[in-house]
Recover the amino acids of this structure.
């Protein structure tokens, strides 16, 4: 199942450094396989990320999980959506980043 996990840049660093995000994080799943449902799940996760980030960059980790309630291993992450910079308009869409770009998102 594809899940959308709201997080922060610190959470993204944890994913990179520890190889997973914990199971206790909130996450969203699309109600069906339509693009509209997936976009709605992404937007809901982005709203939560904004609250977590407190004005910083919104970050949403997207993963394909066998257990949608379990930990989120880095190997199951298919993409990261994030603001291009801090202070982005919360109405703007998030940028799409491949997992290989996580280091660049974190400034390294």
């Amino acid at each position: 199942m594809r899940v959308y996990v709201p997080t922060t840049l610190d959470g993204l660093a944890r994913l990179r450094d520890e190889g997973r995000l914990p199971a206790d994080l909130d996450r969203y799943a699309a109600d069906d396989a339509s693009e509209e449902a997936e976009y709605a799940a992404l937007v809901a996760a982005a709203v939560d990320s904004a609250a977590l980030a407190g004005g910083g960059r919104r970050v949403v980790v997207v993963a394909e999980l066998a257990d949608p309630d379990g930990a989120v291993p880095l190997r199951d992450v298919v993409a990261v959506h994030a603001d291009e910079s801090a202070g982005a308009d919360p109405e703007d869409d998030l940028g799409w980043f491949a997992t290989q770009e996580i280091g660049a998102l974190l400034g390294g």
Summary: The beta strands are 2-7, 20-21, 28-29, 59-64, 72-73, 77-82, 95-97. The longest strand covers residues 2-7. The chain has a mean pLDDT of 94.
